[in-house]
Amino acid sequence: MESVTKRYPDGTVAVDQLSLDIPDRAITVLVGPSGCGKTTTLRMINRMVEPSDGSILIDGMDIRQQPVNTLRRSMGYVIQNAGLFQHRTILDNIATVPRLLGWSKQEARARAAELMERVGLDATLAKRYPYQLSGGQQQRVGVARALAADPPVLLMDEPFSAVDPVVRKGLQDELLRIQDELGKTIVFVTHDIDEAVKLGTMVAVLRTGGRLAQFSPPAELLSAPADSFVEDFLGADRGIRRLSFFPSGRLELQTAPIVGIDADAAKIASRAEAPYLLVTDLDGKPLGWSEPERLTAGAIDRDQLIDHGRPFLPGTDSLRTALDGSVLSPTGWAVAVDGQGRAVGVVSQQVIGEAIRAAHGQVAQDLGVKAAR
Ligand SMILES: Nc1ncnc2c1ncn2[C@@H]1O[C@H](COP(=O)(O)OP(=O)(O)OP(=O)(O)O)[C@@H](O)[C@H]1O
Description:
The chain is of the alpha/beta class. Helices cover about 35% and strands about 20% of the residues. It has helices spanning about 40-45, 70-75, 90-95, 95-100, 105-120, 135-145, 165-180, 195-200, 220-225, 230-235, 240, 265-270, 320-330, 350-370, and strands at about 1-5, 15-20, 25-30, 55, 55-60, 60, 75-80, 155, 185-190, 200-205, 210-215, 260, 275-280, 285-290, 335, 345-350. A hairpin with a 2-residue loop joins strand 5 and strand 6 (about 60). Helix 5 (about 105-120) packs across helix 6 (about 135-145) and helix 13 runs antiparallel to helix 14. The longest helix is centred in the last third of the chain and has 24 residues, at about 350-370. Pfam families: ABC_tran. InterPro entries: AAA+_ATPase, ABC_transporter-like_ATP-bd, ABC_transporter-like_CS, P-loop_NTPase.
């Protein structure tokens, strides 16, 4: 987008000289307060709204150089409340665009069935009508319909705003999974900064009047908000949320404080220096903490153990999850597990704190290098 401005006939400037370099095969999120011009920006990309000034290029070509129908066919469009055709079955809703493109009914329905599976909809829903589906299921249908003709670009306007937080999280995870498989160029509008940070490869924060406040990867947004508007918009627990982008894989784990529930007296005695021991079942899965002097060899009482909090997977989970585990555990130690849930080590809040400080230092250094360039 090159200096794109939209002035509506009544004089409202919805978007003001917006320039954005939207990366392909990634998710770019437009976020900002109500009325800041997000929807207008999105609709200018598929020419539902024409810019008053500036130009929009895709792969270097001005979008005005091709017929509007050709342009729109290359772009799936998903809106809040899915916007499904109420009188068509789910399968036919999804098959709409392939049918418009001249596919046979059979081909279009086969494609629709494939997409239902891809977006996590059970095949038994195919014959139902939209009103017979939950809000979350309807949104999945909306996504499947937008993907039906396999467009390279997907425009999504607050697609998950109308569903409850749990369903919303499921839809977000599903979108990330689908994106991993399909690699579309997605422009996603939301007013929810957490959604933006979770989904975006790049996040454009807009302020009222359609002006760009910041355009950054989410980790950078959280680390270095451009000004007080962005900082306020990011909210109070920015520091904690930022930890989601720091990996936990390099945390130094201790294995000495781990003992099996069948541990004998000698073993318990050999570990007595640790303030707490993590007791595991015979498969190695964590059961809880205990102070070594409280453990009776051969007869460890599960009911006496202290809750071990939520374990984390080193390498997969972030430092935020590790810290959360340590905060939830009354001992202040977090438990690391493998994919099977077996304890592979434990780590203290102090060590996590050191890792956080090191990660902050690294980010500051990276940002410094970038600023100097
Ligand atoms: N057709 C129109 N005519 C005049 N003004 C309009 C028109 N459409 C939108 N606007 C105005 O343009 C501004 C931006 O609207 P837009 O819908 O793009 O914002 P938004 O960021 O998507 O808002 P929301 O989060 O509330 O959906 C608002 O002030 C809005 O009132």
